[in-house]
Known about the structure:
Helix content: 25-40%
Largest sheet: 6 strands, mixed
Number of strands: 18
Low-confidence stretches: none
Bound molecules: zinc ion
Order of helices and strands: HHEEEEEHEHEEEEHEEEHEEHEHEEH
Shape: elongated
Amino acid sequence: VDAASRLLSDLVALPSVNPMGRSVLGPDHLEGRVADYLQRWFRDLGVAVSREPIAPGRDNIIARYDAPGARRTVLFDVHQDTVPTEGMTIPPFIPEIRDGRVYGRGACDIKGGMAAMLTAFARLVRERPVGSASVVLACTVDEEFTHIGSSRLAEQTQGIDVAIIAEPTKLDIVDRHKGAVRWKIRTHGVACHSSSPDLGDNAIYRMAQVVGALADHAADLSRAVPDPILGTPSLSVGRIEGGVSVNVVPDRCEVEIDRRLIPGETPESARDRARAAVQCRVGSLDRIEFLPPWVVMPTLVANPETAEPWLGGLSAAIERVRGRRPAILGVPYGTDGGPLGESGLPCFVFGPGDIAQAHTKDEWVEVDQVLQAAEMYYEIARELGAR
Ligand SMILES: [Zn+2]
């Protein structure tokens, strides 16, 4: 077995499941095991590595390679966490190499990409090619839920010229994606015995009006002027909860909202529009509470002025390995590039594997793509060093 597959197998065998907001943690939750492994791995390689606490049991691992005479510094970003394992039909943490694939939770999203970045990084350290960019390799926490890792990293990008974010893009380049904002709406009422409902004020009835307004608003959004690549914005009410018992008029009801953003929208503007839609339909926002969002994922938009100079070198490096030019795409899902790109840092998402296999019940990645990606990341560091 090649070194990259062995590395990938090691990483898959270390559970790093994102608890996705759950307060009671299971044995497979959080990124600590992967962080320990990475810290050791970088130390063994003899490079400077820092471990930055982001939340209890959740540390960004950041290593640095200083290239001889480098004029440029490239950030390689890859997340340590995976989605949960419920419903999987294969053992999530017993990696299996079969038919040219590695199976297991995170193989595709994004431990395959991590193995490829580490392999490229080790080769840069070993070979020290002249003219290469310096590389900061940042392994972040909590990409799958509230991306606190990349939000912190976004405050530390001084001296970095361009960022490459590992996600399964099938070795094509993604230079834009939708953003997202998720929040709760809570309606309030007055509880009383259900035998005399007139004495109370039913929070579920109030929420029914709110949900009706949101459904109409969602339909309007689906008819909005689309972004030429990313399409239209969207809104979905995904959860509802209210009431304590059938014989009590409920004094409280909550819904959870997922709103996807396109370029030109901000989380604030999207929430303002939803608020206006509710107010217009219900007549007033009395006893209707918009809670602060728990997910705020900015859109990633390639700024032609800052992105263009890098795109040619990036494409050339990929083409050198693969024999054909990569496509330049937009995707609907969010990445660490949202928070990182917000500060103006040019960000490109690029990695092995197909997003169709991410988060699945039998997650896998093609070994061949991981090996190619390892070579491509190496070539990218060299190529961008000359820009
Ligand atoms: Zn991912």
